[in-house]
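job 3f2a | input accepted
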Amino acid sequence: MDIPPESMANPTRSNPGDFSDTPSPNPSNKAGEGVRLKAVKLGSEKGQTVIDQTWETGKKRLLGGLDHISGTVRKVSDELRQTNNAGLAQYAEVVAEKTDLLYEYFQNKEVGALLKDGEKYARNNPEIFLAGAFILGFIGARFLKSHPEAESQYI
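job 3f2a | predicted structure (155 res):
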């Protein structure tokens, strides 16, 4: 069945039979395009602000958690030394030092730099990255499955 080209006309074109990618020379289209570009720019700026605020909030929580872990492991290390477990105390001290390094890493990184680092790591170590993604997916699935509302939602 053949459909005449006139019935397939695009209503935004000045010529109903013109299927080129050139929009009609309607001046209101230019004004509308300017408004659209301003809205996109404003939306992306607000979106970036929300991302930055979310990152900073998460960063503060992460840094607080890392600081707490480091302090706790150092206390454990001290207690192990007092109970004559110097070998275990040394391992605990290494864990505390690595936690401090992680703290410094996140404290000095912006979200863009962190994403680039993650991207670089994933490219250099795809098997570790994929294994980590699989493990996170598995843990996430178990978490969602164990949630009490999950059962009532799918019944």
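job 3f2a | The first helix runs from residue 27 to 82.
job 3f2a | closed
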